[in-house]
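Target protein
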Amino acid sequence: MPPLTALAPAKINLFLHVGPVDADGYHPLSSLVAFGEVGDRVTVEPADRLSLSVSGPFGAGLAAEPDNLILRALRALGQATGTGEPPLRVTLDKRLPIAAGLGGGSSDAGAALKLARQALGLDIDDVELEAVAGVIGADGPMCLRMRTAWAEGRGERLTDEPRLPPLHAVLFNPGVPSPTGAVYRAYDAGPPRAAAHALAWPAPPADWSPAVVIDWLAGLRNDLQPPAEALTPTIAGAVSAVATTPGVALARMSGSGATVFGLCRSSQDAAAAAVALSAAHPAAWVAPTRLGAA
């Protein structure tokens, strides 16, 4: 069988409302998640044993990691199907920044699980595969689906949202990591929040045209953005840089950061914003994309 390859797309939290930590140590959340047309690329092919090699612009940060989420997910797949460790050679072309709020590792694992099922001819359906993806964390099932959805609970309660139109955007990462654990700890150290208020959001618009959706999203928030900015002031500068770029209608941090997305009214605006940001910030990672296209 020839190698199988798939895109592991960037995940964007269009908004992210977070409640206080619960008795089990988890944070309830509400979010609308969409996926872009940019991402890492995962390739699998049959081999004598399971292995992973990492390349790409951001590959060096993962090359020495012995317990990559891809390997964890594939080992869990072997356990779930009773087939043992999958004999696959996996190659990850790491094109998304690391610790960037883009769900990169979870998306990589989701792509690898789908490819492994195909390569090995495993008799496991999507629901069972989502359960396997859950072993890597709350982002696992949504990143396996790779389609627009409302996420609630700890992120595991997913409801597809096919009404979201494709949204043109520019992604901007200032080149600093934003570790999720540290951001949540800073969030917990902040002022107490009432869970009902934190998780609530106004009813979606009746008109799901891009302009109306962008205006609706402007009234929402990412509750992890203030603590992330306090920990890493560079993120606040990144939000400001994107927000003040011509053609950007809304700028917000995604996930726990440090990547900022700027929603634009057209693909031309997104492309022009990417050019302007790249020129002004040559050390940053910048990419125009389309969200919610799947």
User: Anything to note?
Assistant: The chain has a mean pLDDT of 94.
